[in-house]
Amino acid sequence: MSQTWLVVPAAGQGRRMGADKPKQYLPLADEQPVLAHTLARLYIAFPTARLVLCLDVDDGWFSPHWVPFADWQRVSGGNERMDSVLNALHAMAAENDDIVLVHDVARPCVTQGDLLALHQAASSHAAGALLAMPVADTMKRADAQCLSKQTEPREGLWHALTPQGFRFGLLRRALETARQQQTMVTDEASAVEALGEYPQLVRGRRDNLKITHPDDLALAVAIMAAQEAHDSGRPLTIEPQATGL
Ligand code: C5P
Question: N or C: which end of the chain has fewer CB within 10 A?
Fold first, then answer.
């Protein structure tokens, strides 16, 4: 049976937050940083997975106490997100058929339901899968002065979220090809599409927020509280009866 790996790029500086430290280390709920919440959610869904965590070489904030996984390794981040993920792929002792889920550290609200659905789709589609959300708003094309110049048709448009999941061999080939061709990709699916393979879009929840701007921290706290109160989001503590694969 193929092994499941989790690659978590967490080497970004998060400059759009304007904070005194990278956004993954800002406190969220229970005085735990964003990074600890994201890893806890991943662990509850995949307690036996192997984690590869990409951290900046000069990271002075990380604490291994925030990692619940028994089997994990740290790798150095690169200049861009895709470089961090490639560093992880090069450091992993994975088989070509192993499943690799890549999840941004800045998405701590991802639910167990979405994680398991994405894993299932990534395992059953040869070109892999990604969580995504159909575009709901009217889309505008702006010029440099922020004048609304045109309305873009939104049919067929989706927001790409994470995790995105692929067989290890395909993902490594896709990202190595992107690097050789000096194409900067902002997600894994773009690199796979460039090979002529088409990943499956898995409709995810709207509350899988990527913390980017200062307002997003309070929003993430509110989302987590609502998830705990009302639906399939799981409490943030790690439960011994956690669902395995
Ligand atoms: O900045 P942004 O939110 O788009 O980054 C997406 C993810 O990629 C974050 O989890 C961030 O920590 C990570 N990243 C990385 N290495 C970089 C840049 C971003 O691991 N060089």
Answer: N
